[in-house]
């Protein structure tokens, strides 16, 4: 009776192994033979060329010259207006220049209007500072003698830029001290919260939208911002998946902009020496450029000393999957282990019956 029970226990244990022996994915042999839906490439000196790093662009030597641009006024801007009368003090409507003139600080309302004595309500949204000065002189002509007007922008909603997203201190930043470049604005916002290659920068200026990787901006693609631009920093999709017998399986950020297979393996703790099959290192890649193109599976034999150099040259793309299969001996241990445990348990049960 004990033998029947022991056999039944062993049978049940082995039956349960069927769902656990697959590990994190398919076996090495299955990947190498069942390739009707993908293209399997054995990486060696003759096949590696299409997967190697392209020409790396050298940083640009140019320096962005922040030349001033015309500011068009809008609602919310604050103006400092100086009006002078070229007459003796106390005679004219406005103070003479020798005494500092008459100053007004006005905010453009939500309708784009300002209001001044002897000028009334005037629409100034969309005008430049020079155009506002000319308008004031024209409106005051005949009201006073030899009037002069000077307008300064002291609160520049129209000339400011907005920085939002993955920065340390998002906000709106003034251009009163001079034009801002893209790097100026990002630096004033505290810089990005992620590594440069993991950040995309989108610039909107009302007429066009441009998206750059922040590392490319640092390499010389800086630009002067138009007034009232919006800059949004967000996470670039620069991730890969590591599966199987690696130190840290899971979803990971690419450690740098041009990440090699060797870099990626290092970022996930390398191959697990206890159970990895170094001859079964695979890279699964979808090709989204053409709808009818099969996915590609690359296999590299890390037992080959030259494979270290191959792995350093193969570039990992975003959304690639690195999969390291288990060694055959480890798969065998997964079969033998439950059997041995069952036999030991059966022996212990037999001893107890005696």
TrEMBL record:
SLBB domain: residues covered: 161-220, 238-324
BP-aspect Gene Ontology terms: monoatomic ion transport
Transmembrane segments: none
Domain annotation Polysaccharide export protein N-terminal: ranges: 66-153
GO molecular function: polysaccharide transmembrane transporter activity; porin activity
Family recorded in the similarity comment: Belongs to the BexD/CtrA/VexA family.
Name of the molecule in the record: Polysaccharide biosynthesis/export family protein
The organism of origin for this protein: Pseudomonas eucalypticola
């Amino acid at each position: 009776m004990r033998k029947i029970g022991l056999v039944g226990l062993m049978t049940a244990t082995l039956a349960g192994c069927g769902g656990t022996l697959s590990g994190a994915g398919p076996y090495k042999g299955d990947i190498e033979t069942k390739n009707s839906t993908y293209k399997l490439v054995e990486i060696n000196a003759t096949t590696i060329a299409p997967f190697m790093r392209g020409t790396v662009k050298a940083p640009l030597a140019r320096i962005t010259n922040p030349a001033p641009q015309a500011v068009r006024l809008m609602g919310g801007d604050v103006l400092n207006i100086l009006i002078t009368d070229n007459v003796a003090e106390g005679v004219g409507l406005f103070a003479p220049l020798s005494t500092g003139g008459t100053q007004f600080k006005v905010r453009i309302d939500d309708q784009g209007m300002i209001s001044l004595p002897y000028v009334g309500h005037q629409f100034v949204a969309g005008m430049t500072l020079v155009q506002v000065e000319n308008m004031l002189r024209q409106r005051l002509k005949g009201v006073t003698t030899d009037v002069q007007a000077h307008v300064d922008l002291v609160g520049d909603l129209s000339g400011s830029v907005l920085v939002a997203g993955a920065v340390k201190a998002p906000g709106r930043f003034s251009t009163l001290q001079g034009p801002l470049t893209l790097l100026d604005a990002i630096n004033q916002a505290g810089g990005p919260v992620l590594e440069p290659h993991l950040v995309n920068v989108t610039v909107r200026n009302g007429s066009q939208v441009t998206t750059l990787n922040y590392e490319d901006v640092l390499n010389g693609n800086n630009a002067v911002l138009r007034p009232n631009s919006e800059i949004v920093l967000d996470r670039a999709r620069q991730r890969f998946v590591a599966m199987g017998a690696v130190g840290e399986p899971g979803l990971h950020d690419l450690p740098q902009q041009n990440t090699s297979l060797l870099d990626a393996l290092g970022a996930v703790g390398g191959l697990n020496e206890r159970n990895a099959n170094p001859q079964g290192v695979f890279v699964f890649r979808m090709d989204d450029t053409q709808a009818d193109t099969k996915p590609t599976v690359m296999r590299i034999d890390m037992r080959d000393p030259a494979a270290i150099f191959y792995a350093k040259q193969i570039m990992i793309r975003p959304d690639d999957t690195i999969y390291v299969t288990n060694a055959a001996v480890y798969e065998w241990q997964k079969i033998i282990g439950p059997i041995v445990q069952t036999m030991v348990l059966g022996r212990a049960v037999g001893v107890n019956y005696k």
